[in-house]
Amino acid sequence: MSRKVFLVGDGAVGSTFANDLLQNATVDELAICDVAKDRPVGDSMDLEDITPFMGQTDIHPAEYSDAKDADVCVITAGVPRKPGETRLDLVAKNVKILKSIVEPVVESGFKGVFVVSANPVDILTTLTQKLSGFPKSRVIGTGTSLDSMRLRVELAKKLNVPVAKVNSMVLGEHGDTSFENFDESTVDGKPLRDYAEINDNVLSEIETDVRKKGGKIIANKGATFYGVAMMLTQIVSAILDNCSICLPLSAPINGEYGIKHDLYLGTPTVINGEGIEQVIETKLSDAEKAKMLNSADKMQEVLSGIEL
To answer: Per-residue pLDDT for 89 more than 70?
Structure first.
């Protein structure tokens, strides 16, 4: 059976993801679609030059009709965040773009899994499911996976330990209402708050650094793409290989944490070849649960103002 990925959006994130995917997964066909028609032509030619090292892959520019037999449709297309903008500032621009993507992909006969990374990712993942009519298990967003990796990096630096020994997550919105699950975090198996270097002021500084990192990267180089491209590679590889992995992703909430809204939000999620296998309601302190509810409320406010 052919392993096919249909990529919509060949900008900085999309092209970096394509490169990462080919180096980390077995892909028989990679179809690249973008409104700028020349870009996928050039990228396909450029990317095929690494196949002698990575294995044979049919890489080519594509139209939406090419999505029909894909296992995964990855959506990175959208207007990127500018310096000073929040992810929610992008809503109006990117909802219109999303609609122009999801409808023709579904019309092609696509029966695979949607993976969304365009921002605001929780909003756009929720809307992808509604626009497509797909089962919620077959629509996934990158959610707070990148935030969580940034958190692990900062904690590893602060405690001078390998990043692999840090077990900590960012949950909720991939944006300004996100929060760190410090109360349940561990480092090398030991509770984070048991470390002498850690106190509320230090954690507050780390939280700020994690939240502002994306903006700092954008201010310095115009966009962030390495981290999210690798997260997309992990997600798509798990789907193609039908290998269960758990990451904090934009997942459909169905009463978890006491949330009554019908939306996607960042929470630990097990994915495999079918998409979402399990949405995990992780243990939270009362203060953290209140933050999760607040994040859901803010997302719902935005969703309530959107007409599809």
So the answer is: yes
Res. 81: pLDDT tops 90: no
Residue 223 structure tokens = 């966009």
Catalytic positions? 174
Rg (CA), the chain: 19
Nearby residues of 137 by Cβ (< 8 Å), 6 or more positions away = 252, 274, 275, 276, 277
pTM of the model: 0.94
Tell which wins on pLDDT, 270 or 89. Answer: 270
CATH numbers and ranges of domains, the chain: 4-141 (3.40.50.720)
CB of 136 closer than 8 Å to CB of 116: no
Query: What does the alpha-carbon distance between residue 194 and residue 109 come to, in Å, rounded to a whole number?
Result: 53
HSE toward the beta carbon, residue 33, CA cutoff 13 A? 22
Angle at 186 between CA 183 and CA 187, to 5 degrees: 140
Distance in angstroms (rounded) separating the CA atoms of residues 13 and 77: 9
